[in-house]
């Protein structure tokens, strides 16, 4: 039993995980979330084609806010991260809808704006935490 604990302590988690397993190594999902949020809001505000809105808005609401928040948790398994992200998106959607009802401010545009703000805030947090300009393989040391 002691050998297992010692080998687990000595093991470097960065050496055994590939960049694909580490959700925080690449900035592109956060950037895509930011761009998709702006695109969905633009479609709704400027009254884009109805078929495009009918597909993109529910897909964005069902995936983006929770997946952006789930990436902050750093879950290594991609399927688990996706399932937790979708569940969190649906829960956030319900909470936003209940909050609007409670405050007597029901508006589909306000709900979409709030969920987009949550997703954008989580994405910006991820970008700032990981450093947008830093390279993933490069470590910064203080001399």
From TrEMBL:
Q: Does the keyword Transmembrane helix apply?
A: yes
Instruction: Please list every transmembrane segment annotated in the UniProt record, as residue ranges.
Output: 28-45, 82-103, 109-128
Q: Keywords, A to Z?
A: Membrane, Transmembrane, Transmembrane helix
Q: Is the Membrane keyword given for this protein?
A: yes
Region annotated Disordered sits at 1-25
Protein name, per record: Uncharacterized protein
UniProt superkingdom: Bacteria
Write out the biased-composition intervals (Low complexity): 14-25
